[in-house]
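Recall the central idea of this unit: under ordinary conditions, the amino acid sequence of a chain determines the structure it adopts. In this exercise we apply that idea directly, starting from the sequence alone.
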Amino acid sequence: MKKSHYQYLLIGAGPAANSAATTIRSLDPAGPLLLVGQEINRPYHRPHLTRDYLLGHKRHQDLFLHDPSWYQSHRIDLRTHRRAAHLDTSRHSVTLDDGEEVSFDSLLLATGAAPRPLTIPGSTLPNVFYLRTLEQADRLRHAIDHAHKQNLPPKPTDRVPWVSPRPPKVAIIGSGLLGLELSSTLTHLGLQVHLFSRDEYPLSKYLSDLPARSLSRYLESQSVSLHLNSPLQSLTGDGRAQRLTLSTGDSFPCDLVIVAIGISPHKELLRNTPLRAERAILTDDHCRTNLPSIYAAGDCAALFDPLFSKHRILDHWNSALSTGSIAGANMAGSTSTSYNEVSSFSTTIFNLTITSFGEPRLATRRLTRTHPDSSIPSFTEFSSDPTGRLVQITTTDSTPTTHTFLSTLLSTRQSLQGQEEHLKDPTIPLNQIFPLYDLPHQ
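Accordingly, the structure predicted from this sequence is:
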């Protein structure tokens, strides 16, 4: 058995591990560092897959975070297409799938997550797709091109006049962030998009009924057919998915299916170890697990967020960069680098950008200020916990000053009690509602 030793061993070649490697090298230019990735590609910008890459605006080489020479010049041993098969915490070692045993001084688990699988009959048919990796994006691009070619009419003749091609029909399953982003992208690619969800409204995790209904109308105005509150029963067809059937018995034809119903954190390496985990690997606000010298970051980790005094899975790109950097700093000897941010993400759906700050799972009441005269949804929604303290804000306002204001407001867990009606009134400036803050006029 081949054996090796590294001061820093990073398992996972996504944004968290890449960020950790960058931070480690800024603090320790020479400590032996191994970065192991299961994908065949070196670290790349995953958010581009759902938009720019599928649309053809970016090529393979535009996605990568660094050139191969960057890893060489920074003394980072990058090994792709390698899987960590076994973790021995007592020996401080990881065995790779090629049999090599790698011992470490510090270990980062940044194994990411996998798409949550669809489990209805027919879900394993060959034209049922997921989108998480660059390889999956390539397969989906090929399937879209093939579907367009399959739907071209025969060449016109004297007996058969020219007819317009039928747009391929795609069934997107899931009305969360990925499902809505794909709805926008595939509509632009000329597909007839049908979006199915068991939820009553899109983005129901982040929005109350009022803005969600506005978002639904907007999607329909962009030619997306919504089938909400519609549990699925099966996918059927002749060797591939050609028809989707709901539990109501209604059925719809389809040329391809894309599943976007969430993710499941990778934690297989924890089997038979004392590492603490629930849905994901538990860490403190320094990204440390319960075992010395072992850290976790990115989608596979549930970080303790001091702002909300709870463990949270921060499954968005910017959070992976942030937690990876925190883990890297502490692995390289920092004792004071901890998570003290307001988590956030942004998504763009057609011409609408939505940004959310904070923790939606704690929200028990939502207050929405809307601008009904806008041609596209325009709202800011404030969510509070049972004590009336702010836990989440979601907005369609994309101006940087507004984002700074909202993040600052949430960072203090401001109480909304007594301000409910004022918050819902868009004619009242927010800096009048919260006069103690030096805020931009709203």
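The chain has a mean pLDDT of 93.
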